[in-house]
Design a protein that fits this description.
Elements (H helix, E strand, L loop, with lengths): L2 H16 L2 H11 L6 H13 L3 H14 L3 H13 L3 H14 L4 H13 L3 H14 L2 H17 L3 H13 L6 H13 L3 H19 L6 H8 L3 H13 L4 H10 L3 H14 L4 H13 L3 H14 L5 H13 L2 H14 L4 H13 L3 H14 L4 H13 L3 H14 L3 H13 L3 H14 L7 H13 L3 H14 L4 H13 L3 H14 L4 H14 L2 H14 L4 H13 L3 H14 L4 H13 L4 H15 L5 H10 L5 H15 L9
Helix pairs in contact: 1-2, 2-3, 3-4, 3-5, 4-5, 5-6, 6-7, 7-8, 8-9, 9-10, 9-11, 10-11, 11-12, 12-15, 13-14, 15-16, 16-17, 17-18, 17-19, 18-19, 19-20, 20-21, 21-22, 22-23, 23-24, 24-25, 25-26, 26-27, 27-28, 28-29, 29-30, 29-31, 30-31, 31-32, 32-33, 33-34, 34-35, 35-36, 36-37, 36-38
InterPro entries: TPR-like_helical_dom_sf (IPR011990), TPR_rpt (IPR019734), Ycf3 (IPR050498)
Keywords: Repeat, TPR repeat
Organism: Cohnella nanjingensis
Length: 659
């Protein structure tokens, strides 16, 4: 090379090193590509690419490689291909560069980056380990950092932690982003306190860098050796994490440190005052701390600043839903719907709130519209199915769940369709759905809810023996669930296994002594066993716990009658009728006491007339009166008296108004 050419090349290289790209290009082009040495062509191509002349840079490298295979030229072209999203061509060039010269660590390192971007993490990890064998001390930290990133993506968190720790151990080259990634890996490994220590330190260091005029650009470039574009990408990641303050806040929250969580958010907002995510997070922390009004005001502030962003609307709605303030929840969703008319999430929430607010028909219409707009989302069909179940439209619930299952063979969908079919008395099909659910998720076979559902289906099929067996299996899987004992007790009561039913009631009440349904059931079991004193104790306890339950008072009356405490029994029946005045059997039982125990024929006849009114249903008057003659335990004279009372009060031609 002539002396003049060497001078031009030196001027180009010096300006390129100093970052004077345009001046460097001037000298390169004054020299001319034909007079450049091969490595100078490589640098020239890199400069062209950096200045936006990518095609010219690739052409220069192509001409060079057509004349002679040079590893550095392949590596440079691979970098360009990678940056313009042509990974297959980048990988091919890197393979050739390594074949020609496997010594430079950078070739292995760049190929690992390309492989990782192509989703080939295992191969990328192998290449990075090869790069480590070749890298000097200054480069090793960067390689360890990238290896940590690969292990993290592979969810091999302990290996990621080990690699990150090596990267951050070099105090002369570590940057806050690398320490933050170590914190992320520690969090993923469940080591929250250690994670917080690293993230907090990274955030403090980054805050100091953020205060510099270049916000740490030169600092990152000197320490990492990244290109200018690489440093800008790293700082973009820092900004995306809001100087790591958002992660710091979440870690404090996970540790129960609410005040520290809020302080970290405030520190983040000091650097990023318009960060929507931090503003929303502040609102969420205020909400969780019980400062509801302040949280609502915070979300109003976010909506005012970012009216075309959805999260704050939904956060505000969530507060109203938790408060069961349905009008306000609906109002904010309608506001969001006006702003985001095509957003199906807003529609989905609106339907849910209508359901919770007690507007089933509006919710149903909204659901039908949503499934028309977005029929490919199985959750929309699930929502529609649950709305149908709410209103006992089990055929429509089955149809909606069938649509959901066409899109997603979800075990929960099978279980809920099974319930819909069970409620429609289609027990065999309900059982087939449970079997399909278990096929979709084998773990369901070991869950008590599956055995419980099978027990209910067998009861519906009147197979009490198999129902008892399934309820027993559910109890073995979940022995602390009182409801399961109640269901088996009812099954055993129907099978006349009275002692076993009583034992189940005892077991359920031992788990939850405040469970009134179990008390009522045990009272019935004791009654059927003839243990009336025990039955009386249970019935009194139930009636005290549920004073507004007519059935509880009826049961109490039945037990008292068995104990010949007739006045108390009549009082109990009367309380039952005051709560539910249309129960024919209660009038009949009280009539029997009036007649047989108190010898009060008039009141007995009145009660029989009431019994006749409610027991007759839709029968004609003659058929209704015939029921009196089918009654045992009453004499003919009382039957005639009851008939007279009935005809005078309720028969055809009886007066309807008082004169």
């Amino acid at each position: 090379m002539r002396i003049h050419d060497r001078i031009l090349l030196r001027l180009a290289a010096r300006n390129q090193k100093k970052g004077n790209a345009k001046r460097a290009l001037y000298w390169y082009e004054k020299l001319g590509e034909r007079r450049m040495e091969p490595l100078a062509v490589v640098q020239y191509a890199a400069l062209l690419h950096g200045l936006g002349h990518t095609v010219r840079g690739l052409q220069a490298l192509g001409r060079l490689l057509s004349e002679q295979p040079i590893a550095a030229a392949y590596e440079r072209r691979a970098r360009i291909y990678h940056e313009i999203d042509r990974p297959e061509e980048a990988l091919a060039d890197l393979n050739e560069a390594i074949r020609l010269d496997p010594a430079p660590y950078a070739y292995w390192y760049i190929r690992a980056v390309v492989l990782a971007d192509m989703g080939q993490e295992e191969a990328a990890a192998r290449d990075l380990n090869q790069a480590l064998r070749r890298a000097d001390r200054n480069a090793a930290g960067t390689v360890h950092y990238e290896l940590g990133n690969i292990y993290f993506r592979m969810q091999r968190y302990e290996q990621a932690i080990a690699s990150y720790r090596v990267a951050v151990a070099d105090q002369d080259r570590v940057v806050p982003l690398q320490r933050f990634r170590l914190g992320e890996a520690l969090e993923a490994a469940g080591r929250i306190r250690e994670s917080l220590a690293e993230v907090r330190l990274a955030a403090e260091q980054q805050t100091r860098l953020h205060a510099q005029p270049d916000q740490g650009l030169i600092y990152y470039r000197r320490r990492t050796g990244y290109s200018l574009e690489g440093v800008r990408n790293a700082l973009s990641q820092v900004d995306g994490e809001y100087g790591f303050r958002q992660k710091q806040s979440r870690l404090h929250e996970r540790l129960g440190e609410k005040d520290a969580a809020m302080a970290a958010v405030e520190q983040g907002l000091a650097q990023y005052p318009d960060a929507e995510e931090l503003l929303n997070r502040k609102g969420g922390l205020l909400r969780d701390a019980g400062h509801t009004d302040e949280a609502l005001a915070q979300f109003d502030l976010v909506i005012a600043r970012y009216p075309n962003r959805l999260p704050a609307y939904m956060e505000k709605c969530a507060i109203y839903r938790k408060q069961e303030s349905w009008p306000q929840a609906l109002a904010i969703l309608e506001q969001a719907g006006e702003r985001f008319p095509d957003n199906t999430v807003v529609r989905f929430w609106h339907i849910d709130v209508l359901r919770d607010a007690g507007h089933p028909e509006e919710a149903w219409r909204g659901s039908r519209r949503l499934t028309e707009l977005e029929p490919e989302d199985p959750l929309n069909w699930k929502q529609q199915a649950e709305l149908a179940i709410d209103t006992s439209r089990f055929d429509q619930a089955e149809e909606a769940y069938t649509k959901a299952l066409e899109l997603d063979r979800n075990s929960d969908f099978y279980m809920r369709r099974s319930f819909s079919r069970y409620m429609a008395d289609r027990y065999e099909e309900a059982m087939l759905d449970i079997q399909a659910a278990v096929e979709a998720d084998a773990s369901l076979a070991e869950e008590s809810r599956t055995a419980f559902a099978m027990g209910e289906i067998y009861l519906g099929m009147d197979n009490k023996a198999l129902a008892e067996e399934e309820f027993g299996r559910a109890i073995r899987l979940e022995p602390d669930n009182a409801l399961l004992y109640e269901r088996r007790a009812r099954c055993r009561l129907a099978m006349e296994k009275l002692e076993e039913a009583r034992d189940d009631c005892d077991a359920g009440l031992a788990l939850d002594a405040r469970q009134p349904r179990m008390l009522r059931l045990r009272g019935i079991v004791h009654y059927r066993m003839g243990d009336y004193e025990a039955a009386l104790s249970d019935c009194r306890s139930y009636a005290a716990a549920q004073p507004g339950d007519a059935e509880g008072e009826f049961n109490l009356g039945a037990v008292l009658a068995r104990l010949d405490r007739n006045d108390e029994a009549i009082e109990a029946y009367s309380r039952s009728l005051a709560l539910s005045p249309f129960e024919a059997q209660t009038y009949l039982e009280r009539a029997s006491l009036f007649y047989h125990r108190l010898f009060d024929r008039t009141r007995a006849a009145d009660d029989l007339a009431q019994w006749l009114l409610y027991a007759g249903g839709e029968r004609s008057e003659s058929d209704r009166l015939a029921l009196l003659h089918e009654l045992d335990g009453f004499d003919d004279e009382l039957r005639e008296l009851a008939k007279t009372h009935y005809l005078n009060q309720y028969g055809v031609g009886a007066p309807r108004y008082l004169n």
